[in-house]
């Protein structure tokens, strides 16, 4: 079994496409249900945790700037590490990610160790 990183991104800035408070609560329930199902199937390698929306970026010249950049609409929403046999299985698992319901994306990468 391989480990895959699933990185979730979506537009958190465009006001018109943000879910209402009620829609957001429903969305959070979908996340909880999806993550519980991955856990029960022993596909979740590491437990998820929340992350702040703000952060810093360390550049190649060792300078530090505020990030993520304001001009980028799509921001990192979080990530999990799953267990799957191959990319095809990882993609099938990722298709259940609730971030897709809000127009987001899932980046999938396999660990090389």
TrEMBL record:
SUPFAM superfamilies: Dimeric alpha+beta barrel. InterPro entries: Dimeric_a/b-barrel, YCII. It comes from the Bacteria. Residues 22-108 form the YCII-related domain. Belongs to the YciI family. This is YCII-related domain-containing protein.
């Amino acid at each position: 079994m391989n480990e895959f990183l699933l990185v979730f991104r979506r537009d958190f800035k465009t006001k018109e496409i943000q879910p209402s408070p009620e829609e957001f609560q429903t969305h959070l329930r979908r996340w909880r249900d999806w993550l519980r199902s991955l856990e029960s199937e022993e596909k979740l390698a590491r437990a998820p945790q929340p992350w702040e929306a703000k952060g810093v970026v360390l550049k190649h010249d060792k300078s530090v700037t505020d990030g993520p950049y304001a001009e980028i609409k799509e921001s990192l929403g979080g990530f999990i590490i799953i267990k799957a046999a191959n990319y095809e299985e990882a993609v099938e698992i990722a298709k259940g990610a609730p971030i897709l319901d809000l127009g987001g994306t899932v980046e999938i990468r396999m660990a090389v160790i």
